[in-house]
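Quick entry, no commentary yet.
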Amino acid sequence: MERCQESDVAAEPAPAPTSDWSPLAHPVFRALWTASALSYTGFEIRNYAAPLLMEDFHQPFHLLEGMKQYAFAASTLPIPLLVLFAGALADRVDRRKLLIVTHVWMMLAAAALGVLTIANMMTPWMLLAFLFVIGAGYAMMNPTLLAVLPGLVDPSELKSAMALNSVNMNVARVMGPAIGGLVIVAVAGREPYYVGKGLAFLATALSLVGVVVVLTKWKPAPRDSAAPAESVLASAWKGVHYAFTSPRLLQINARIFLFMVCAGILPTTCAVICKQTPALMGEAGASYLMVSFGVGALVGVYRMQGLMRRFGVERVVVIGTIVCGFAILGVAEMTSVYVGCIAMFFAGFAWVMIPTNFNIATQSAVPAWIKGRVMGVYVLVLWGSMALGSLIFGRLADSVGQRSSLFAAGVGVLVGSIAIIWIRLVPRQIERV
């Protein structure tokens, strides 16, 4: 059962869907997509509120800055630590039950974090512990959800389904901080400073309820494959081996790395540039830029299928990479929020087409029996590339400044766009959509 060759995966793509929104015609996908939109927004509310709460602990400045970095690390560190294990588990157990367990796990942790914060019982190290626990749940959930989604739609609708999932994440990046800010501001001055943050964490917990309800009601068809006989560790290693010995997956992972190692720093770096430049309106300017990024992503989703049908996947991804590279250069050189918003709009427009097609290419190249494990590798490569890029360009920023570092990242994205000459995302025989 465990032996399978790449030829097991369909070599020809199915006909293009009649509508970019056609996956929403499937009741289970529509319900899970809607619930996931709320949960992604909840995660972003948590990401917004946690650093603000850390600032409220009145640490010495040098220690405060370190603790804020620890807060980010506590949320993201579980991904490289657990995602391969999560992928192996997703291929061994009932994926629906695993998703229910992970969402309940995160919901309870977020609720406890909110209650303890409102009760003024939270400490910096307790906050880090809760962020790690919630991050661990996210790491366990992500590859499982990616393995489940293709089974909820027709094969011809996979591209649209992945694009709609990207819509959720990009809208959440905009709506999460906005909602979190409204919750905190709504009680500011009337309640102690920590109550607003606690309510934001409770909103995160509440946002996960919908996914649990949808998954509880969903009754999927039994999966064909039996659980692997080897240990979870051996099973995870088999997924890594498959991902890095499959020629097609090697090419896909190389393209993911080349793009994300440079482009992944854009959201955080543009916010830092805004805060360092009075003319860019500080946090308000950063919010405007992220809204523009989200709007661009929405327009990109609307146009993506038509562009791919007309030009082919490879050309769209390469052109999108070039557009994104020049947009990053524009953000690095922006002298006003208006210029930055235009650049971020084009960055968002191009961005949604690039990682979305990385996801689709990976899904299309992997048979069902090992999909959870390979999607775990996909998540690891994606996040690992961004983490490495943050380290490289963060060190560069220490020497030459944030703007020059981001400019170098934009140049790196443009240079990476020539990878099509040697590293193709889609085999030539199935390039046309």
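second:
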Amino acid sequence: MRNYNVNKFSRVAVATDDGKTISAHPARAKYFEIITISDGKITDRVRITKEIHDALNVEGEKSSLNGKNKHIIPAFPECTHMIARGIGSNAYHRLLRLDIHPILTDIHSIDEAINAFILGSIISHTNRIH
């Protein structure tokens, strides 16, 4: 388990199927909720579909990833974190190499997870890497 502290500015990608709950696995999620946090407050929230996400991926990234992992690498270089309830080992390490910190939570609600992130109390459970 790891505790995270929010910086003055963070952009968090959250895997979701409905915009309310965190998906069990980003590769199977329909959307990514992109939440911008500045000085401890949500300043922007945008939902992108998998189709838009795939189209925005940098050329070359797709060819180096297998069919599942290409869907979970956020296409936004300014994302600092990604929240999900589980993730494959290859994707987890790929995100770290891109300086995007995966947070694997047992929290189901996006709003609750983001609040915990802002408060610095969200915990990443590395046992959720598979």
